[in-house]
Amino acid sequence: MTEVGVGLDRLISLRGKRALITGAAAGIGRAIAGRFAEAGASLLLVDIHRDRLSAARGELSESADVEAHAVDVSQREQRDRLWQAIAASYPDILVNNTGIYPFRHFLDMDQALYEEVMAVNLDAVYWMCQEFIRARGDAGGVILNLGSIEALLPFKADLAHYSVSKAGVVALTRALAKEHGGRGFRVNALLPGGIVTEGGRPVASCASSWVSSGRACSSRAGCRSDAQVSQTRSRAWRWPWSPTSAAMSTVRRSQSTAGFWRPEGFAAYIAAMARKHRSSRASRIRSRRAITRLATSIARSTS
């Protein structure tokens, strides 16, 4: 929640919008769902974990219109049933957040685990985007794909398979933005780094180590403690390059403020990105700058 009684809906309005969020039962996905609800959106929560999904729905139903669907998005039959179930009212916004990151040394990787990671992290995103674009047609819509800093700058050892899958998400996002931007679809990828969630603490620790020392972290050498993460996470994030693309309108720095290390702060940025903006280049540039300022303000004011 924001401080001094200022709700997110006073800063970002998603009223009248319907958002489908995958991986919505925990971590970043749960934080995204909370921020979208705070901004006034109705929610379609999708997750493979039925119990956590039910708990998230119960919490969010107090402030938003919420549907929950227990679905493994890596399975075609379950994806098909999902889109059939929501055919009466398709979402305006699709957030592809589902992802897994099992640690496995490159030389120990087997085909079964590799294919599972690709099925969840990349293939599911591809097919969910296809269904969304087909369903929305000329009405257009907003797609927000969660990539990872690992796609561009690996922090943690034993995640080559994960890095490849997330690099694919970035490439897919650029292609869809180029091919479907003229039909009213705005497609963006956001690349979180060390977001401190239950499952992401090891990577967050390594990201913190990189920010403070400039050195990558080896999983075998161990990671910095949570206390050390807390001490360094307010440092400004500095990229060793400036990734730009006319096709992908925003790939922003997820750790530009201390608040972005928390899933709630990062989720505020995603909620800001869900807003439509005008199509002219000048308007897009102004919109990106305004969104960055707005999200930074929100992140700094979150608890």
**Poorly predicted runs:** 1-6, 219-258
Distance between the termini: 6 Å
Portion in strands: 5-15%
Count of separate DSSP helical elements? 9
Number of domains: 1
C-alpha geometry = globular
Strand-pairing-aware structural class: alpha/beta
Mean pLDDT: 77
CATH class: Alpha Beta
CATH homology group: NAD(P)-binding Rossmann-like Domain
Q: Which percent bin holds the helix content?
A: 40-55%
Name a few traits of the molecule.
alpha/beta; 6-stranded parallel beta sheet; single chain; globular; 303 residues; Rossmann fold; 9 helices; disordered N terminus
Provide a descriptive summary of the structure in words.
The structure is a single chain. This protein has 303 residues and is α/β, with parallel strands linked by helices. It has helices at 27-38, 50-60, 76-85, 111-136, 160-180, 201-213, 226-232, 263-273, 281-301; strands at 18-22, 42-47, 66-70, 93-96, 141-146, 185-190. The N and C termini lie close together (6 Å). The relative contact order is 0.13. Residues 1-6 and 219-258 have low confidence and may be disordered.
